[in-house]
Amino acid sequence: MPQPRVPAEPIRTARLDLLPLRVEHAEEMAVVLADPALHTFTGGTPHSPADLRARYERLVAGSPDTGVSWCNWVLRPRAESRLVGTVQATVTGDHSAEIAWVVGTPWQGRGFGSEAAQGLVAWLGGRSVRTVVAHIHPDHLASAAVAAAAGLAPTAEEQDGERRWRLVLHP
């Protein structure tokens, strides 16, 4: 029997507000995510505002699988009052979550990714999530640092050229 959906709720960290994704965020986020360098390890190209809006409409509508929750947030530093990135968690009925993050190029190197990932993992720990997983390209040292800061550790498992990182919250 599928577990109930896990709704994204606002998360507050020391410097950031993680706001549940809304379709209206697409235009500002298209600017934040416009640097092609953000796709070096993940592939693809930046989305236009219209394409990002369509993507956000799908994400906000939620997974068609009732046993899967798509939780997505935008990152807003309170000192800047503008969006700087995203975090996401796909929570499944087996009490696991796959997480990911991206911080726009102008805001990298300030610890926003690590802080947001730590806040997300803490939030997931307050839910029914037992295991948190991230997939990181072996050459993406910044993402590896974010994962490590959030408590995840690399495993020997690889999928599609990415290493699986894992944290067991509740055995």
Overview of the molecule:
The protein has 171 residues and is an alpha+beta fold. The protein has four helices and eight strands, in the order ββααβββαβαββ. It has a single domain (11-168), classed as Aminopeptidase. The mean pLDDT is 95. The longest helix has 14 residues, at 112-125. The two termini are 21 Å apart.
Secondary-structure topology with pairs:
Elements: E1 11-12, E2 16-20, H1 26-32, H2 49-61, E3 68-77, E4 85-92, E5 96-103, H3 112-125, E6 131-136, H4 141-149, E7 153-159, E8 162-168
Parallel strand pairs: 5-6
Antiparallel strand pairs: 1-2, 2-3, 3-4, 4-5, 6-8, 7-8
Q: What name does CATH use for the topology?
A: Aminopeptidase
Count of separate DSSP helical elements: 4
Shape: globular
Integer average pLDDT: 95
Largest sheet: 8 strands, mixed
Percent helix range: 25-40%
Q: How many angstroms separate the termini?
A: 21 Å
Ranges where pLDDT stays below 50 over 5 or more residues in a row are: none
Under the CATH scheme, the architecture is: 3-Layer(aba) Sandwich
The level-1 CATH class? Alpha Beta
Helix and strand run: EEHHEEEHEHEE
Considering the protein shown, what is the CATH homologous superfamily? Gcn5-related N-acetyltransferase (GNAT)
Query: In terms of quaternary structure, what is this?
Result: single chain
Q: What's a quick, concise take on this entry?
A:
The protein is an alpha+beta fold.
